[in-house]
Amino acid sequence: MSDPRSTDPGPSETPSPVASTMRAGTRSTLVGAMFLMATSAIGPGFITQTTSFTVQLGVAFSFAILVSILVDIALQLNVWRVIGVSGRRAQELGNLVLPGLGWVMAALLGIGGLVFNVGNVSGAGLGLDALLGLDPRIGGALSALVAIGIFVSRRAGVAMDRIVVVLGLVMIVLTLYVAIVSQPPVGRALVNAVLPEQVSILAITTLIGGTIGGYIVYAGAHRLLDSGVTGEENIRAITRGSVTGIIITGVMRVVLFLAILGVVSTGAQLDPASQAASAFQAAAGQVGLRVFGVVLWAAAITSVIGASYTTVTFVTKSTVSQRTRTWLVVGFIAVTTLVYVLIGTAPSTLLVFAGAFNGILLPVGIGVLLFVGWFRRDLLGGYRYPRWLLLIGSAAWLLTLYLAVNSVRPAIALFS
């Protein structure tokens, strides 16, 4: 017989409306964080990299995609768990591990994010050019206004979560359509995923850097912090979100790979100036070109949102008011858009240096978080971190060192 004084609901009782609302809110936030991370990764560079390697490697590129997804999961599992359980942003943990280190991380990310966001705005302009024939600079400026409108809206957090989810699904569905129309050799691609005809270490490391490099790996985790989904009690949700975010990115990578593969496997020659656009057009004619415009615009605008939001969370303290952060985001978007409108795109030299900053940040940032997992249980509220997770994260971290070396070399070469 149950104790009449107990306040715990019995097994047959209906959950309270408040509890149901909280769970629904957590699910909505989690989905938004997953898609924020995924769509931050799926930017103009993502499309260019995937197309280029598909042309170079053909069906063998499927192996690089599979390996990169596994490595990305190992790293992001650790990043999201440490940030989520500690309830602190990555740069805050960096300052607690070594005073000043967090601000070095913030500086690296800020410089890289600023330059790459110029590229994101450029991609949005090119997307509207392919879709509507609009001048890319006008299209980039209009797209920036859309992004600013999201952040200054009354419920900016909800608006951001919803827009990245909707546009993420739009990108996947439209690219899947082109993949079906192009009729790729799916069987050969599946075989090469486990028994590749050739292995490209460059492709694997490039995909890892493009998926979780720079600000991307922190985007969803910082979004969860701002929404209050933190602490040991939310580990299951944090883990599910971190893995699903990578899987969403992987799904988009696979369908884009198959869409391009179906075209190049027929021997078609793609326009070197815009390989992805010409592949979509070769697969589905003018409809394909318009689909490419939508996909590129959606990829670019969601990356503008992700880069702007995450960069500001990195360069401000958590005590800064939401209003101040909003206007900093607006200013960040405005500055990068102005640079694009004035010069057309980020100079290649700056892009090389931004890539170097992002490449350095990856092992530094992940190294800090792994250090917290290994040695700073006090920052995790006494949580006993799984050793198996730290081991696979540390093994994957070694690859980020290789990435760092390869990202710095082009920058050094500019002065040699």
UniProtKB/TrEMBL annotation:
GO terms for biological process: iron ion transmembrane transport. It is found in: Membrane. The chain crosses the membrane at residues 30-47, 53-75, 96-118, 138-156, 163-181, 201-221, 242-264, 294-315, 327-346, 352-375, 387-405. The keyword Membrane applies. One of its GO terms (molecular function) is cadmium ion transmembrane transporter activity. It is a multi-pass membrane protein. GO terms for cellular component: plasma membrane. Residues 1-22 are annotated as: Disordered. It comes from the Bacteria. InterPro entries: NRAMP_fam. Keywords: Membrane, Transmembrane, Transmembrane helix. Pfam families: Nramp. This is Divalent metal cation transporter.
